[in-house]
Amino acid sequence: MQVSTTPKLKLAKLVKELRGEKSQRNFAKLLGVSYYAVQTWEKQAALPDEKNLQKLADLKGWTLLQLQIYLQDSEKNNVAITDRTDDSSWLENVRNGQPTQALRWSIDDLIAEVRTLPFDAAAKVAQVALETMTVKGS
C-alpha cells in the first residue's frame, strides 16, 4: 500500500527541519510571522502564502519554484531538487532547452504539473513557453 504525502505534511516536515532546535516563537521571529503561523504549518492546518513560502525557500537554499515542486511532488514524478543558492546555471539550461538535474520529467508529467498550478504560476509558465517558441521559431 502506497501512502500519499500531502503538501501540508511535506511543508510541516520542512518547517520542523528548518526550525531545528529553535522554538516555534524564535523561528517565527526569524521569518517575521506570528508564532501561530508556524504552529499552524507544523500542525498541517494551513499552507503559507507565497511571500512566506519564499522565505522558507530562501532558508532552504531553494527557489520558490523548487519549493512548490517539492510540495506538489508525488511518487510518480521523478523530481530531484538539490540545495542551491544560485540557480543561474539551472535556469540557463532550462532556457536553452538543455537537460537539467533539477527536473527529470516526461513532457506528459510536466504538462500535468502545469495544469495543477495556480493561475498566476500557470500564466508565468505560458509566458516563458511563448518566449521560448518565439526565440526558437526565429
Annotation keywords:
single chain, 138 residues, mainly alpha
Percent in helix = 55-70%
Report strand %. Answer: under 5%
Please give the domain count. 1
CATH architectural name:
Orthogonal Bundle
**Main CATH class:** Mainly Alpha
Number of helices: 8
Mean pLDDT: 77
Query: What's the CATH topology name?
Result: 434 Repressor (Amino-terminal Domain)
The string of secondary-structure elements, in order, is: HHHHHHHH
**What's the Cα radius of gyration?**
17 Å
- Helix-and-strand structural type: mainly alpha
**Distance between the terminal alpha carbons, to the nearest Å?**
50 Å
Large-scale geometry: elongated
Low-confidence stretches: 74-86
> CATH superfamily, please?
lambda repressor-like DNA-binding domains
Summarize the biggest pleated sheet.
Answer: none
Structural notes for this entry:
With 138 residues, this protein is mainly α. It has a single domain, classed as 434 Repressor (Amino-terminal Domain), CATH 1.10.260. 62% of the residues lie in helices and 0% in strands. It is built from 8 helices and no strands. It has helices spanning 7-19, 24-31, 35-42, 50-60, 64-72, 88-95, 107-116, 119-137. The longest helix has 19 residues, at 119-137. The chain is elongated and about 55 Å long.
